[in-house]
Each structure stands twice: as structure tokens, then as C-alpha cells.
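Hey,
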Amino acid sequence: MLNPGAAGALVSTAGDLVRWQIALTNGRAVSPDSFRQMTTSTVQTGNGNSAYGFGLGVDELEGQTRITHGGGINGFNSSLTWLPDSALSVAVISNSQDLPSAWVEGRIVTALTSNDPLPALRTSPQPGAEAALRKLIEDQANGTPDYETMSPQLAEAVRAQLPQVQPLFKSTGAIKAITFVRTDLDGLDTYRVDFANGGAAMFSIFLFPDGKIATTFFRPVPSANNAGNRP
């Protein structure tokens, strides 16, 4: 891989990441004052109680402060987390986009810090997800998204992308079928949407408990796979 940008073409292991975490926290990599700035909540991310310091994410997991950062490039993703209250470091590296390292890290931390059993993985779609997805697509095709049904972050993104997305959805024609495919490990429901013009796309969506859409994204299905090849 010749173009990883700031990643610098580095090769590492989960063990290396934990050693780096230890160097950060004990003053070997940066000064204690610098690390304090890195882990002091500075920018609110808009995602619950999550915030960002000078280079590291700061939030809570299982009632403990969590210092974390993730990374990724095509085909790979990673997560490094430190829980100072329990002196616990967890590093996860994944070579599959379908296995998010942050999800694995969260399950590991929960297993190590909670007396409760790990929650079972959901295998059926969230109630209302298909209807919300259908409405979202149709509203964007008509140029009238209902921003009240979205998280503030999603509403902002939809508003910014509408000039490009509306003509795209308009050109696909009406929705012909929506088929549930799977629930991903990170909790997003994936649907295949077939359109009247013969095109198709895979949509992922997640709803908050109040029914608002937390996040959604899509990718086209290659045209050779459209006809008669539904998953």
C-alpha cells in the first residue's frame, strides 16, 4: 500500500499498541502536562457524553472514564482504549470491515469490568427501521427530508449532501423492494434496496430508542449483480 497518508506505512501489532499506550500514560512518549491536554475533554462530538481532547477521545464505558482512539484504512481498522480507573488497556486490530475493532473492544471491556453477562447479539432488524429507511429515501428523492426524524449530526450531513443525493435518488425511480440482509456486529441493520430503473444499493441504518435515525449510509450494488442475484 503506497498511499496511506499520515499512517506513514507503519506496520504494528496489538501488543505494540499497548506498549505505546503505556509509554503515553507514564510520561515516556509525551510529558504529563501534554498527556493531560490530550485527555481533557475539549470538543464535544455530539455523540452522547463523548468528547475529544488534543488527539484522544474521552468518554465513559461501564461507568469508567475511557481514553480511546481508532484508526482505519481500506480493509483494516483498529482501536486502542485505556481505562485509567482500572489500569486496563485493550488493543484490537481487524482485517475485515465487517468486524469493527471498536465493537470488539467494547465487548472485551464489558466482559472484564462488568458482572453482567454480555448482551446477546441482535439478529433481527430494529422495529421501524425499514419504514424509516423507505421514508428517508423517498423524502430525499423529493427534496423534502424530514430533519426532525434524524439525529442532529445526520440532519446536518443530509442537508449538506442533498444537492448531490436528490438527483441520484430521483434518477433511480421508485423503490421496488426493500430486503433485510443482516444486522452487523456494530448494531447497524443492512438492507438491499432495489429501484424501478433496475439499480440497487445496500443501505445501513441504526435507530435511536426514540425512533430517530442515528446514522445511515449506502453503497451501490454493481450492475452485474442487480438482476436476480439478491442476497
